[in-house]
Structures are given as structure tokens and as C-alpha cells.
Task: inverse folding
């Protein structure tokens, strides 16, 4: 098991198999993939919730409109950086929170 | 001019020779021509009067006539005779014409005779020639037959070679087909082998994972068993010494009661001894297994230690992250007021709405962009 996969600080947004193995979760490939998808959805949910909290109603309408105009990723990125000051920290913190949840429940997940 | 004509070995006059038509000798063509020359001489002496023989018409042989063929005999044009007597002249002319015809006939006969003689002279050479020709033809026939046979053999050989080539080509094609088929089979086998190998590797990975997991579980079970055995051992050991102490404390007032008590203590002691032995055996077994699986034990300890360390670190980081999140929430609550709080309270409902989906998409996009920037 490669424990070096775990970073000193959680500055990641995408969860990997190594993250799960680092907390003692060692399932089959299929189970691992399913768990990763579930965990990633959980991260996305937390991030989106906090994004929503960070934006005013007008800003939410604006970003939705920007999305519907098929704006480029760079435009979206620029908009987010301008309107969400803690944008990067929000992503990192919510990823760490989900990893913490996984670590707390690793034994139950492994034996389930 | 010398007369060469003879009859029965005696020289005869040319006139006699002409009348009888008998030729005794014509040894050669040239000699025959010489006879003809004599014949003309004879004709001159026989027909012309004595007084006119000299200076009269005569037939002269050209120089070629002595050596060449008959056709080269060129008669000179007859001279005009000067005859005074008309009757005599008429008679002589008729006689001359008749004699001329006779001579011409004879010439034709002579030519035929000479031709026959010529043929006879060349009969043998011709025969030899024919034989040679026949032989040649025969040889030609043999050669032709041999050629035909050779051609036939060559054709047969060519056919055989062609058949051999066709057969060889067919065999090569079949060999190629076999090789191609074999290659396909080998490829398929290799493919199947690869798949089987992949499956085997996957299976081995699964087995190893299972084995490791199983061994870890076994290790933990054995460690637990050891701890349990040690606890039982301690307990039974205490019970054992307690009983021994009671037995050695002195006789009871009631001897019967003492005997019954001693019997109970003995049974208890025996039971405790058995349990003690069983616990010891389990302990020994656990120790033995753990010793045999020292490597696994070390690995388990290392992994478990790393996992525990990771868990602690993650839990710490998660706790810090939660604190930051809560702080942000608090700050937002203070900044946005109650209206935003009301909106937040309905977050679960909003999340499934169009706005919610948009925000979720936003989060995914942001995460991906962040990931890309990290990369």
C-alpha cells in the first residue's frame, strides 16, 4: 500500500483509489470505483452547497445564465474567481471533509 | 577427220552405219558426238557428187561440238549449189531433202538413245543417290521420329514440370494458408492466453488481496485468542491457587462437610487445570501462528500503523476543514442576513431544481478547473 499518496494537506479535488487505500479501504476494483463515484458526488454536493451559500441570488442567476450561453471554461473560471473569494479553499476543505468521513467509516466500509 | 564407226570390229562407211542403224559402241558422250561428226562427213561423201564434195555445202562442227553436248552443234547455213542441169538439180534437191529428213529423224533417235545411255550411265549413281536419299530420308525419318519422340518426351517432361510447378505452387499456397491459419490460431491462442493471463492476474490480485485480508483477520483473531487465553490463564491460575490455599488452610469442623468440600475443590481444581491446559494450548498455538506469520504480522502492523496515521491526519485535516467551513458559513450568515438563511434552509428543495442543477454543474466545473490548474 502506497501511503505516500496521501498529501500532507488536502489540496485535491478528485479522489483516487490511493486516497481510499491510505485510510485502510481495500475493496475490489468494481467496489472501489463505486465508492469513489459516491464519495466524489458527496464532495460535489458539499462544494455546490457552499458555492450557493457564497453567491447572492443575482449572482446565482448570472452564473446560470453564463452557463446557458455555453460560455467557455476559462470564462466560468474567471467568473468564479471574481465572485467566490474562497473558491479554492472551499474545494479543498470539502474534499478533506469527505476524506475524513471515509477515514472515520473505513472499518465499516471494509467489512460491509 | 577419222572415222570411228565400226561394225563387228570392222570399219564401215558412214552410209552403211546410217542404213543399218546399228551402233556398236558409244563409249562416251564425247565419243558419241564425234560419231555425229563422222556422220556428217559420211553424209557429204555419200550424197554429193565427187566433183562437188570439195567446196560444197558442209556441216562444220564448232569447236564446242567436239566436247560439248549435242545442242551445241550448230549447222551452218547450206550453200547455194550451182547446177546447170535443171532435172539433175531437181533430183538432187529432192534427194537432199529426203536425206535431210532422214538425218534429222536419226538425230532425234540418237538423242533419245544418248539420253537412254546417259540415263544408264547415271543409273548406278542415281541409284546410289536414291539409296543415299533413301538412307537420308530414312535417317531423316529416324531423326524425325526421334525428334517427335524427343519432342513428345520434352512435352511430357514439360507437362510434368508444369504439373510439378503447379503442384509446388499449390503446395506453397496450402503451406501459406496453413501458416496463416496457424498464425491465426497462434494469435487467437495468444489472445486467449493474454485474456486468461489477464484474468489470472486479476484473479491472483483478488486472491492476494483476499489472502492478505484473510491473513490480517487471522492475525487479529489469533492475537485476540492469545489475549483471551492469557486472561483465562490468569483467571484459572488465580482460582487454582485459591483452591490450593483453601485445601491447605486446615481441616473443617465438620469432617463430612470437610470431605465434601475437599471433593468439590478437587473437582474444581481438575476442571481449572483442564481449562488452564486448554488456554495454554491455545496460547501456544497463537504464539506459533504469529511466529510463523511474523512477516504478515510486521506488514499488518506497518499497514495498520500507516492507516492509523493517515486516519489521524485526515481526521485532523477534516476537522480543520470543517472549522473553516463553519467559519465561512458564519461569516456569510452575518454578511447576507436572514434572507439568505431562509434560502439556505430550503437548500434541499432548491438543489433538485434548475438552479440546483446549475449550481451542481458549477461545482463540478469548478472542481475540474481546479484539478486542471493543479496539474
Result:
Amino acid at each position: 500500500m502506497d501511503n505516500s499518496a496521501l498529501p500532507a494537506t488536502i489540496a485535491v479535488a478528485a479522489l483516487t483509489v490511493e486516497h481510499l487505500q491510505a485510510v485502510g479501504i481495500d475493496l475490489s476494483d468494481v467496489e472501489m470505483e463505486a465508492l469513489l463515484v459516491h464519495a466524489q458526488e458527496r464532495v460535489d454536493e458539499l462544494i455546490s452547497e457552499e458555492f450557493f451559500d457564497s453567491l447572492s441570488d443575482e449572482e446565482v442567476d448570472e452564473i446560470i445564465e453564463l452557463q446557458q450561453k455555453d460560455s467557455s471554461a476559462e470564462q466560468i473560471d474567471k467568473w468564479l474567481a471574481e465572485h467566490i473569494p474562497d473558491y479554492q479553499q472551499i474545494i479543498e476543505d470539502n474534499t478533506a471533509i469527505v476524506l475524513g468521513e471515509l477515514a472515520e467509516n473505513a472499518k465499516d466500509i471494509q467489512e460491509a | 577427220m577419222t572415222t570411228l564407226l565400226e561394225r563387228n570390229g570392222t570399219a564401215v562407211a558412214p552410209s552403211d552405219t546410217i542404213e543399218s542403224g546399228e551402233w556398236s559402241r558409244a563409249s562416251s558422250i564425247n565419243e558419241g558426238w564425234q560419231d555425229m561428226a563422222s556422220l556428217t562427213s559420211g553424209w557429204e561423201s555419200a550424197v554429193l557428187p565427187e566433183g562437188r564434195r570439195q567446196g560444197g555445202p558442209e556441216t562444220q562442227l564448232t569447236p564446242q561440238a567436239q566436247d560439248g553436248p549435242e545442242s551445241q552443234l550448230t549447222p551452218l547455213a547450206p550453200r547455194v549449189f550451182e547446177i546447170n542441169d535443171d532435172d539433175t538439180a531437181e533430183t538432187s534437191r529432192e534427194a537432199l531433202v529426203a536425206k535431210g529428213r532422214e538425218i534429222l529423224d536419226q538425230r532425234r533417235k540418237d538423242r533419245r538413245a544418248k539420253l537412254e545411255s546417259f540415263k544408264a550411265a547415271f543409273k548406278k549413281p542415281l541409284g546410289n543417290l536414291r539409296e543415299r536419299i533413301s538412307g537420308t530420308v530414312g535417317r531423316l525419318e529416324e531423326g524425325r521420329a526421334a525428334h517427335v519422340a524427343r519432342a513428345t518426351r520434352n512435352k511430357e517432361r514439360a507437362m510434368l514440370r508444369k504439373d510439378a510447378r503447379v503442384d509446388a505452387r499449390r503446395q506453397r499456397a496450402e503451406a501459406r494458408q496453413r501458416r496463416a491459419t496457424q498464425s491465426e490460431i497462434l494469435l487467437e491462442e495468444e489472445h486467449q492466453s493474454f485474456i486468461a493471463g489477464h484474468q489470472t492476474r486479476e484473479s491472483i490480485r483478488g486472491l492476494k488481496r483476499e489472502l492478505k485480508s484473510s491473513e490480517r483477520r487471522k492475525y487479529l483473531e489469533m492475537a485476540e485468542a492469545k489475549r483471551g487465553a492469557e486472561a483465562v490463564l490468569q483467571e484459572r491460575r488465580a482460582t487454582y491457587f485459591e483452591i490450593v490455599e483453601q485445601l491447605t488452610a486446615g481441616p473443617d469442623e465438620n469432617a463430612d462437610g470437610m470431605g465434601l468440600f475437599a471433593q468439590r475443590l478437587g473437582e474444581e481444581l481438575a476442571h481449572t487445570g483442564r481449562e488452564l491446559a486448554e488456554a495454554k494450548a491455545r496460547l501456544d498455538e497463537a504464539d506459533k501462528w504469529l511466529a510463523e506469520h511474523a512477516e504478515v504480522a510486521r506488514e499488518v502492523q506497518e499497514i495498520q500503523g500507516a492507516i492509523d496515521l493517515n486516519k489521524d491526519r485526515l481526521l485532523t485535516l477534516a476537522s480543520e476543514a470543517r472549522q473553516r467551513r463553519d467559519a465561512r458559513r458564519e461569516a456569510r450568515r452575518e454578511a447576507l442576513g436572514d434572507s439568505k438563511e431562509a434560502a439556505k434552509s430550503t437548500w434541499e428543495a432548491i438543489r433538485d431544481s434548475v438552479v440546483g442543477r446549475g449550481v451542481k454543474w458549477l461545482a463540478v466545473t469548478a472542481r475540474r478547473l481546479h484539478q486542471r490548474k493543479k496539474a
